[in-house]
Design a protein that fits this description.
The structure holds two protein chains of two kinds. Chain A is α+β, with helices and mostly antiparallel strands. Chain A is built from 20 helices and twelve strands. Chain A folds into three domains: 154 residues, no CATH class; 115 residues, no CATH class; 172 residues, no CATH class. Chain B contains 14 helices and no strands. Classes of the chains: A alpha+beta, B mainly alpha.
């Protein structure tokens, strides 16, 4: 640092005073350029030259004999653009023209001339400090340093690495748009812009992460959303104080209301149509650079059990499927615990014939119902997890191992009863039919405490578990909105979109719980 | 204190709280207790009369509380009868809520032991129940109201399904003759049935929590009418199926009614498990709201935070619940609590209303 300052002092010696005034006030801290290319290069090489991917390419500018250099990062900058547009236009012979151009500097070349006459690319910016230049180069810009010039030019050559737009993997639909968000923030915001709401869609940018700064965009529709909600979301985002945010899951966990709750209080989705629908209802979306998962707040439990398809299909099948899903959620949560409760405590309460046949099949099983059920439930969870992590070609093998060995063989070996296999399969299938991964996993997890309650207190334990869980749910809020609304407090007008999905003709208003500025959805 | 401006409940929520408070042990015992007193099949008329009386008493309480719509009973009673008498009365009311609360959990534990968990010790059944209740009431009145709103539809649906299943063994002759022995036996049962409706007293505390205290009367009316319908259906179905002689002999006649028939071809042949689910939830509701009322009372008397009282009352409730030695003792406690309630919430509010009107009139004069 000392060295650099000293160098720059020497470099500044004997220059005319006007040029000195042009330099920024915070000279010392930002290391300005000198008019000596060699010094500048030395400084820059100290700053970033030790990185193997930073390239320095020296050449003579436009056959004028003036040395200059471009600096870029391999892989981040668009080499095609540099090779085909920047280098050729800089190296073509313009020695005659530049002498006619004013102001003419002997031994150097004005940046205005380069900007206006030579370089044919859209983004050009002049910088004066080495630090700033270094950080810009490291994010993909190309720097052009010219001997005798006091500032460097930054050329916008950053190449965004994106993948093609694909159908979202985690949320499959039969009917609906086939696009999913990608890892690029600008792509993702452009999806929202494409929704047609142009004037009122606000996209406010924040930066999160203290070390690795990432862009985060809060999206909402200005004339619908409750300003207090936006304020709350922004406050919570500003409070995020962490060194890096690799995925929106970090943001989710840092802004949620209750981190002790098993229930997700922020919805994540890969589907632009889902986000647009939420925005239109008066919710807020949070997009983070580098992940296709966009967050939606506030959410309710009923939202987690809905799929966009409910609205794309006609209302009668939509309602049917939605009710089926509620049933699946209840089954996923309570089937194994009810099995345990009825088998080990209240076999008198199930029909006699059924009781006899169940007990008959269980006669060879050496374990109590809880151990038996736990064994199978854990096995199926492991199978599910393994299926998820396995490389795709091995997948079918998993199915054979899981289906045959765990199911068939366990029954034949007399470790579990066939009825339990049915129960476990029913539970698993029900939990997979829940459209939202994070709530599905919550329900799957909660069935274990439910089973333990059932094993200790039978049906009474299951009821108490239900009461405990409901007590938790009624206390839970997501950004000020009760988690169980609109079911409770009673709001009959909004039950049209809760268990059933009434015809769109009848859903004229936005959800009241969001306190929207413009409550009318449909005339 | 838990009374923060945001912690308000809506009018339907107030009604739901009253409904869930009233429905409780009564669902299972009312057919027996009323028939014992009436001795004719007209018990259901007593139930209706009891309901009407409760509504009247409830409206008096609402009128009283509406004069001080910013304060709970514990706070405004001092304004009416002075600090000492007021404090004493508040304590009595708190004790009443505590005893009701304990009575509910003990009755629940007895039924559970009788029907579901024969070998499980009472303390285990009671303790786990109390912990869940505590977890709920720590959140304040709003979560309580919301939970009740979830419980209520479940109750209505399951209850109606189960009761109408018992149409199979319903005999209209068991309900005849109507008023065969005149109105006198019916009146004998009114006291018992009115007690089964204990619950409107929560309005004494709820009004300051309400969004619009002016609608409290409406909430009370709905809050008592729905349990009234439930009770009439229960009594009619139970007497119709088991006849009065059969009802008097049984401790939990409603449960026996459900156990006495089977419907083949459905998943369950017997439906008492469904009724028990409903009933445990209703007991949970009554337990939590009375527990909350008692803790709120202590907090407001001592002008301290409510949470330490919630935790502190837990062992107290447990001890009171374990005092009765057997079912007979328990029902005696129930009767005693009922008699106290009759005085506390039947006569006292009327007296207080008259006193406050006289005092209030004076104040009004001095101001103008």
């Amino acid at each position: 640092m000392m060295m650099k300052e000293w160098l720059s002092k020497i470099g500044n010696k004997g220059k005319d005073p006007d040029k000195d005034k042009q330099a920024p006030a915070s000279q010392d801290t930002t290391c300005p350029f000198t008019d000596n290319l060699h010094f500048n290069l030395e400084c820059l090489k100290q700053e970033i030259g030790h990185n193997w991917d930073v390239h320095f390419r020296e050449f003579n500018l436009g056959r004028t004999g003036i040395r200059s250099v471009i600096i870029f990062v391999d892989g981040l900058s668009d080499k095609d653009l540099i090779d085909k547009h920047i280098m050729p236009s800089l190296m073509v012979d313009f020695s005659a023209e530049y002498k006619q151009n004013l102001p003419y500097l002997k031994g150097s070349i004005s940046k205005e001339f380069i900007k206006n006459e030579v370089l044919s690319i859209s983004e050009i910016e002049a910088v004066r400090s080495i630090k700033e230049l270094a950080s810009k180069v490291l994010t993909g810009s190309t720097a052009l340093l010219i001997d005798g010039s006091l500032d460097a030019l930054l050329l916008g050559t950053a190449k965004h690495k994106t993948r093609a737009i694909e159908e979202p993997v985690s949320e499959a639909l039969v009917r609906g748009p086939r696009v999913g968000f990608t890892e690029s923030l600008s792509d993702n915001t452009s999806f929202l812009r494409c929704s047609g709401e142009i004037e009122n869609l606000s996209l406010v940018k924040f930066q999160v992460g203290k070390r690795s700064k990432k862009d985060l965009v809060v999206a909402y529709i200005k004339d619908i959303v409750d300003p207090e909600l936006v304020q709350e979301v922004e406050n919570r985002i500003k409070k995020i104080d962490i060194d890096s945010v690799p995925e929106s899951g970090y943001v989710e966990q840092l802004i949620e209301d209750n981190y002790l709750s098993p229930f997700p209080q922020v919805q994540n989705t890969e589907r632009p149509d889902r986000v647009v629908a939420a925005l239109m209802e008066g919710r807020v979306a949070i997009l983070l650079d580098g992940t296709p998962f966009v967050l939606i707040v506030p959410v309710t439990l009923s939202m987690m059990l809905q799929s966009p398809e409910d609205y794309y299909e006609r209302w009668i099948p939509g309602t049917f499927i939605r009710m089926l899903r509620y049933l699946a959620a209840i089954l996923a949560l309570f089937t194994p615990s009810l099995y345990i409760a009825f088998i080990s405590f209240h076999s008198g309460l199930i029909p006699t014939k059924l009781a006899i046949s169940i007990i008959g099949t269980r006669s060879g099983v050496p374990f109590p119902a809880l151990i038996e059920a736990l064994f199978m439930e854990i096995a199926i969870e492991i199978l599910r997890e393994a299926g998820l992590r396995l490389p795709k070609p091995i997948g079918p093998a998993m199915g054979i191992v899981g289906g045959l060995i765990i199911g068939e063989a366990a029954v034949q070996a007399g470790i579990v009863s066939p009825v339990l296999v049915i129960v476990v399969a029913l539970t698993a299938i029900s939990s997979f039919s829940i459209p939202h991964y994070s709530i599905g996993i919550t329900l799957r997890m909660l069935r274990f405490p439910a089973m333990i309650c059932a094993a200790t207190f039978g049906l009474y334990g299951v009821i108490l578990f239900f009461l405990l869980m409901t007590s938790h749910l009624v206390k839970l809020k997501s950004f000020g909105v009760p988690y169980l609304s609109p079911a409770v407090p009673y709001r009959l007008s909004e039950w049209k979109d809760l268990m059933v999905r009434m015809p769109l003709m009848m859903m004229k208003r936005r959800p009241k719980m969001l306190h929207t500025k413009n409550p009318i959805r449909k005339g | 204190m838990i009374l923060s401006p945001k912690d308000k409940i809506t009018t339907p929520q107030a009604a739901v709280i009253v409904i869930n408070f009233i429905l409780g042990t009564g669902l299972l015992t009312l057919p027996r207790s009323s028939t014992e007193k009436v001795q004719t099949p007209d018990a259901w008329i007593s139930v209706i009369l009891g309901g009407v009386i409760t509504i009247t008493a409830g409206l008096i309480m609402v009128k009283l509380s509406q004069q001080f719509s910013e304060k709970t009973f514990y706070q405004y009673i001092n304004d009416i009868v002075g600090k000492w008498v007021g404090g004493l009365l508040s304590l009595v009311v708190i004790c009443y809520f505590l005893t009701t609360s304990s009575f509910q959990i003990r009755a629940m534990a007895e039924v559970i032991r009788y029907l579901l968990l024969e070998g499980t010790p009472t303390w285990a059944i009671i303790m786990i129940f109390m912990w869940v209740g505590l977890y709920l009431i720590i959140g304040g009145i709003n979560p309580i109201a919301r939970l009740f709103e979830i419980i209520l539809p479940l109750t209505v649906i399951l209850f109606l399904v189960v009761t109408f299943m018992s149409f199979k063994i319903f005999e209209i002759d068991n309900l005849r003759p109507v008023l065969g022995e005149g109105i006198v036996p019916v009146l004998k049962g009114v006291k018992t049935t009115a007690l089964a409706f204990s619950g409107p007293e929560i309005m004494l505390l709820l009004i300051p929590f309400m969004n619009s205290p002016k609608k409290a009367g409406k909430a009370l009316l709905v809050g008592v009418s729905i349990p009234l319908i439930f009770y009439v259906i229960t009594v009619v179905m139970v007497i119709g199926a088991l006849s009065i002689d059969g009802v008097v002999l049984r401790t939990w006649p409603t449960l026996d009614l459900i156990r006495s028939f089977e419907v083949a071809g459905l998943i369950f042949e017997r439906f008492e498990s469904l009724l028990l689910v409903v009933w445990i939830m209703q007991i949970f509701a009554t337990f939590t709201i009375t527990y909350f009322a008692a803790a709120l009372g202590l907090a407001q008397l001592s002008k301290k935070s409510i949470h330490p009282f919630m935790f502190g009352l837990l062992p107290v409730l447990y001890i009171i619940a374990m005092v009765p030695k057997n079912m007979n003792d328990l029902f005696k406690v129930g009767d005693f609590v009922g008699n106290v309630a009759m005085f506390l919430f039947g006569l006292l509010p009327l007296l207080l209303l008259i006193i406050s009107r006289i005092k209030g009139g004076k104040k009004h004069e001095t101001i103008t």
